Amino acid sequence: MNRPFKVLGIQQIAIGGADKTRLRKLWVDMLGLDITGTFRSERENVDEDICAMGSGAFKVEVDLMQPLDPDKKPAVHATPLNHVGLWIDDLPKAVHWLSAQGVRFAPGGIRPGAAGFDICFVHPKSNDEFPVCGEGVLIELVQAPAQLLAAFDKLAAQQA
């Protein structure tokens, strides 16, 4: 296939629970991740701590999420591993090409995400119109920033 984009690596994992304080106990207190920000959205029914492991261009985000209302959708806590985020070198090209290949995306299109990067989601379930999906896993596609693109270009040049 002539794919017009690249998946560069894991941008994030998002972990949901009824109480993010309990999640912080392991991820922050025990494993030593740093809390680098917070995000709260009524529309997405989420209150999250944005944590980080690693550094520089290769830092990986770990989002610790709890629902604002456990009885509303989306239920960010219903699946403990809520979603996996992938760095994409050209998000608009990726969405256009993947849609043409029958990939189903969640409603909302490309939009700013909690960490400030443009994002969209591959739906965990298929339908008749879009038969390709995450097969039960919500996948966030995240536009890689210039710093990360430059770091990958530098690595590629060193390996050539």
Summarize the structure.
The protein is an alpha+beta fold and 160 residues long. It is built from 3 helices and 8 strands, in the order E-H-E-E-E-E-H-E-E-E-H.
Explained architecture:
- 22% of the residues lie in helices and 34% in strands.
- β3 (46-53) and β4 (60-66) form a beta hairpin.
- The mean pLDDT is 92.
- The protein is flat and about 45 Å long.
- It has an 8-stranded mixed beta sheet.
- It is α+β, with helices and mostly antiparallel strands and 160 residues long.
- The longest helix has 14 residues, at 146-159.
- It has 3 helices and 8 strands; from the N terminus they run βαββββαβββα.
Structural class: alpha+beta
Indicate the low-confidence ranges by residue numbers. Answer: none
Report the principal-axis shape.
flat
Binned, the helix content reads 10-25%
Question: Spatial order of the strands in the main sheet?
Answer: 2-3-4-1-5-8-7-6
Distance between the termini: 23 Å
Number of strands: 8
Along the chain, the helix and strand elements come as EHEEEEHEEEH
Which sheet architecture does the biggest sheet show?
Answer: 8 strands, mixed
The amount of beta strand, in percent, is 25-35%
Radius of gyration: 16 Å
Counted by DSSP, the helix tally is 3
Labels describing this entry:
eight-stranded mixed β-sheet, alpha+beta
Note the topology.
Blueprint: E1 7-16, H1 20-30, E2 34-41, E3 46-53, E4 60-66, E5 81-88, H2 91-100, E6 111-112, E7 118-122, E8 138-143, H3 146-159
